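Thread: "does anyone have the structure for this chain?"

Original post by V.I.:
We have the sequence but no experimental structure in hand. Need at least a predicted one for the grant figures.
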Amino acid sequence: FKKDPLSRYLIYWRGKLPVTSDTRDRMCWVNKNHPLVLNYKDSSIFLGLDENVPIFSTNISQWTPLNYDSEAAKAFFDQKTYNHPEMPERSHFAELRGFMTKISAKEAEMAVIARGMHAWHENNSFCPKCGQSTIKTNAGWQRSCTHCKTQHFPRTDPVVIMLVKNGNNILLGRSHGWPEKMYSCLAGFMEPGETIEAAVMREVYEETSIKVKNVKYLTTQPWPFPSSLMIGCVAEASSTKISVDPKEIEHAIWISREDMLEVFSGSSDSIYPARKGSIAHFLIKKWLVGEIK
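Reply from O.Q.:
Generated one for you, tokens below.
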């Protein structure tokens, strides 16, 4: 596939991906002869085929721009953008969460795969079994230990995220380090041997002391920050008194449909909801319009 003259490459840099500068509604692609592809060819991974055209992604995270802001990179959402001198004019590297609702569904899928796969490679340079180095194999979809020969494959961590209802209200929480006033649906990683329903009940109770019942699965979303599969659910609260565990989250609230409508319409800034494009935003919106009873 790499020899195909039509093959396209998506350049990845430190969690960011390239988009057009003006509208951010299109990804910026390069061909197989682009200098960055040639200079970092060992980092390239195969993403798949798009109408029989091979799609790859190349990691240039070794590059450090002169204006790199290391503090901004630690933020929950890094709004800084960067231009590489060898990238096409009027393009820049930006945080995927800032533009994923503007690009096409097909490009969003490729972007999610690229970000998740590169993050996996960056975090698995050494074998968890023997501690020796691993190498990229199978077009980037596998890593093999150079010592014990154990084969490692990309992992996905299941996370339950739930819209908890109580009459005309829903339960929202905020984690430590989130932007001020930002609230979202409660969520947490599943544990070994746990069902989806049990994970929902456990996470809600651990974080807020609220007991829930009638857990129902709704939908899923791949979330490459760095490698989660978000499992969207709805549940009914059987208790209402919130008691937050500060080791789990910072704060939690009950918010009414009327107040949430004002937040979504922009007429209230009492809280900031989950970003568009996230499953949390999707769940809340479906509840607001009556599609989640």
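V.I.: this helps a lot. The CA atoms of residues 101 and 276 lie 7 Å apart.
O.Q.: and The mean pLDDT is 95.
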